[in-house]
Design goal:
This protein is α/β, with parallel strands linked by helices. About 40% of the residues lie in helices and about 20% in strands. Helix 10 links the parallel strand 8 and strand 9. Helix 3 packs parallel to helix 5. It binds ligand C2E and calcium ion (CA) (3 copies).
């Protein structure tokens, strides 16, 4: 019945693409979500490898969908980017993160926060002012905010990206290169970039237990970063063995399921109380 007569099928289920009808539905739902309070932010801890102290958190978008439940970005970031809704989504995430960050400061538990930024946001002429407005309105200090750009975006070498990072860095905001190692940039590019932090992509961390090329890559990134005064965060740390290798190679900060999953703010606060060493 559903596929009867002259139903047009322009999509295939096999290649993982979202069917056209489903995309339209998702877009409509996302507009509603942005007009109401369905977008939330989860926080995942960043931990000092040597002391175990929580040194910060990454804010990650979540969507409380009325019918489908809690959605992770894999289900909606792409469509948000394609439709331009990423601008409003990004604003919302930044605002929610900064508001929470301010609340933690007021509670005597300050914590630096990292927020993801997509290409579309950086290309928007009003982006710099919007970020500064949100910081001003929420009272979250610029120096406690780090913006994460994927390596591909960071290396795009566009004038606009350079301008935005320069202006926001002058305001005290830090910048991180996300998913480092997945793009095509050589390590030699590092020294020319106006960034503070490199986040080593999870794919390099996953094989760390086994002696071999991943270990070498991580060691190389670390020694390079050290000599150029960049901070390094290892992403996706899941096992104690991985942590041991990172510690041995001199990596200072790690993030991953081993320490904590992304959590709602209240959950994060309890996790922090329980996990934080004396
Ligand atoms: P990302 O920036 O690389 O964020 C890390 C992702 O890895 C998160 O997925 C996190 O839940 C997951 N992760 C953390 N630790 C581990 C681990 O130990 N093992 C494994 N297997 N995974 C781990 P999430 O929250 O689903 O986000 C996926 C991506 O969506 C993010 O990747 C980021 O690129 C994007 N994203 C999330 N929030 C935003 C946002 O507000 N704006 C934009 N533009 N993109 C966002
Ligand atoms: Ca990130
Ligand atoms: Ca990442
Ligand atoms: Ca990623």
């Amino acid at each position: 019945k559903a596929a009867g007569g002259n139903t047009l099928r322009v999509y295939s289920h096999s290649d993982g693409e979202v069917p056209a009808r489903e995309r339209l539905r998702l877009e409509t739902d996302l507009r509603v979500a942005l007009a109401s309070d369905q977008i939330t932010v989860f926080f995942q801890p960043k931990v000092d490898v040597d002391t175990g102290h929580v040194t910060g958190a990454e804010a990650l978008a979540r969507w409380n969908h009325p019918r489908r439940g809690l959605l992770t970005p894999g289900a909606f970031i792409e469509i948000a980017e394609e439709t331009g809704l990423i601008l409003r989504l990004g604003d919302r995430v930044l605002e929610l993160a900064c508001r929470q960050g301010r609340a933690w400061i007021d509670a005597g538990q300050p914590l630096p926060l990292a927020v993801n930024v997509s290409m579309r946001q950086l290309e928007w002429a009003g982006y710099t002012d919007r970020v500064l407005e949100i910081l001003e309105a929420t009272g979250f200090p610029p120096s406690m905010l780090e913006l994460e750009l994927t390596e591909t975006v960071a290396m795009a070498n566009s004038e606009q990206v350079r301008l935005v990072t320069e202006r926001l860095r002058r305001a005290g905001i830090r910048f991180a290169i996300d998913d480092f190692g997945t793009g095509y940039s050589s390590l030699g590019h590092l020294q020319h970039l106006p960034f503070d932090t490199f986040k080593i992509d999870r794919s390099f961390i996953s094989g760390l237990e086994v002696e071999g090329s991943n270990r070498l890559i991580v060691e190389t990134i670390l020694s390079m970063a050290r000599s150029l005064n960049y901070e390094v965060v290892a992403e996706g740390v899941e096992t104690l063995e991985q942590l041991e290798v990172l510690r041995a190679t001199g990596c200072k900060t790690a993030q991953g399921y081993l320490f904590g999953m992304p959590m709602a703010a209240t959950m994060f606060a309890s996790w922090r109380r329980a996990f934080q060493p004396a």
